[in-house]
Amino acid sequence: MPTTPIFGFRYPAATDPADVPSDLQKLALDVENLLNARGLMRAAFITGTANITSATGETKLPLTSETDPTGLGTIVSGDWRVDVAGVYFIVPSLYTANLGGGSNQIIYVRLNPAAANTWLCSVNLNAGVALAGGDRWAGGAYVARSLAANDIIRLNGANTEATGRDVGAQCLLLRVG
C-alpha cells in the first residue's frame, strides 16, 4: 500500500483490491496518530463541587469526575495530577444554583497547592452579573501554562454569602504542545 510523501498517510493503489472500510480506517488511524503525536487531540475535563459559605473561605472542590480519553492526568486525593507534561490551555467555568442577591462566587485554579499554591486563573460570578433565584453558569479567562509531570491542579471555590451555596467548577485542560 503506498503512502503520501510528507505525512506517510496510507492509501490504496489502483491495483489494490477494493476494500473501502479498511482503507478509510487506515487513513483515519494515520491522521489520528499524526495529530496525537503533535499534541493536537489531547484534552481532559475535570469537575468538582462543594457547599461553601463565606465563613469557610477558599475551599477545595474535590474532583468528582474526569473525562480524559488520552490519559493526560489522574485524579489523586481530589486533585488532578499531570501525567503528560506539556503546554496546556486551562479554561475554568463555574456553576452555582440560586445565586443570591449581593453574593459573589469564585473558582480558583491553583497549581501545586502543597507548595507554592500558584494562582493560574479564575472565574467570578456575582449578583451584579446574574439575577438572584436561578442557576448560573460563567466562563473564566483561560491561561496557557507549561505543566510538568506530577504537577497538581486544584480547583478551589469561594462564596461571599453567609448562606451556603453549592458551587461547582469545571475545567478544560487542553494540551497544545
Describe this structure in words.
The protein is mainly β. The chain folds into two domains: 38 residues, no CATH class; 134 residues, Jelly Rolls. Helices cover 10% and strands 46% of the residues. The chain is built from one helix and twelve strands, in the order αββββββββββββ. Strands 1, 3, 6, 9, 10 and 12 form a six-stranded antiparallel sheet that branches. β7 and β8 form a beta hairpin. The longest helix has 18 residues. The radius of gyration is 21 Å and the shape is elongated. The mean pLDDT is 83.
SSE inventory with pairings:
Blueprint: H1 20-37, E1 42-52, E2 59-60, E3 63-67, E4 73-76, E5 79-82, E6 86-96, E7 104-111, E8 118-126, E9 136-139, E10 143-147, E11 152-159, E12 165-175
Antiparallel strand pairs: 1-3, 1-12, 2-11, 4-5, 5-11, 6-9, 6-10, 6-12, 7-8, 7-11
CATH top level assignment of the largest domain: Mainly Beta
Radius of gyration (Å): 21 Å
- Extract low-pLDDT stretches: none
Helix-and-strand structural type: mainly beta
Tell me what the CATH architecture of the largest domain is.
Sandwich
Q: How much helicity do the residues have?
A: 10-25%
Beta content comes to over 45%
Order of helices and strands: HEEEEEEEEEEEE
Oligomer: single chain
* Largest sheet geometry: 6 strands, antiparallel
In whole angstroms, the N-to-C terminal distance is 31 Å
Shape, please?
elongated
Q: Mean pLDDT, rounded to whole units? A: 83
Number of domains: 2
Number of helices: 1
Number of strands: 12
**Named CATH topology of the largest domain:** Jelly Rolls
